[in-house]
Write a structure and sequence with these properties.
Order of helices and strands: HHHHHHHHH
Strand content: under 5%
Shape: globular
Number of strands: 0
Largest sheet: none
Structural class: mainly alpha
Number of domains: 1
Helix content: over 70%
């Protein structure tokens, strides 16, 4: 496999990773409320979720979806419902006050943040289709484990580093102070975005 093909995979996936979606929304809110450390674990979980979907695509999950379309529909509906539920929770609690420096706002555990990142990525089965579309034109049929390993590392780095950047931006003191003053509006914005993404996922 050529360097040009690997570079193409890296660029195409990077564009997909930076596009707005549930992972970016979750990274932004975690950065605001829980800071860089917890957000970095969340980003790592998002990266692992991306690797799982990429590995599934490399091993033909898209063919399974094509052969059993109801499976894909079921996964999309379940993922959409989960996002809508998360969005509703944010919206319903938007008016509750928060102090990001109080004992009541201590960061969640690293494991919880990591698990949330993985789940946030896995509730959306569309990356498996996206990865399959990218891999069909770039990964040769005879590619072996070393090539697969390089691709999965690229996917992990793209997802993790981008979401760490999002966390970093939203964990800055200026951003967090602005959030405290605009919590109700911003939580409803985050909740609305998650719900809209859930509806889009379930309907397309």
């Amino acid at each position: 496999m050529t360097f040009a093909a690997l570079f193409a995979i890296w660029v195409l996936h990077l564009f997909a990773a930076v596009s707005p979606g549930p992972a970016v929304v979750m990274a932004a809110r975690t950065g605001i409320l829980e800071g860089m450390r917890t957000g970095a674990w969340l980003a790592a979980g998002i990266g692992v979720g991306g690797v799982i979907w990429a590995a599934a695509a490399l091993f033909g999950l898209a063919l399974v979806f094509e052969a059993a379309p109801m499976l894909l529909i079921s996964l999309k509906v379940l993922g959409g419902v989960y996002l809508i539920w998360m969005g509703w929770k944010l919206w319903a609690h938007a008016s509750l006050p928060v102090d990001t420096k109080s004992a009541d706002a201590l960061p969640q555990s690293a494991l919880s943040a990591f698990r949330l990142g993985v789940v946030t990525q896995l509730i959306n089965p569309k990356p498996a289709i996206l990865f399959s579309a990218i891999f069909i034109g770039t990964v040769p049929p005879g590619a072996g484990w070393p090539v697969f390993a390089i691709i999965l590392i690229l996917v992990f780095l793209n997802e993790t580093l981008w979401n760490i950047a999002v966390v970093r931006i939203f964990s800055l003191d200026r951003t967090r102070n602005a959030y405290v003053g605009l919590k109700t509006s911003l939580d409803r914005l985050f909740g609305g975005l998650l719900a809209l993404l859930g509806l889009k996922l379930a309907a397309t």
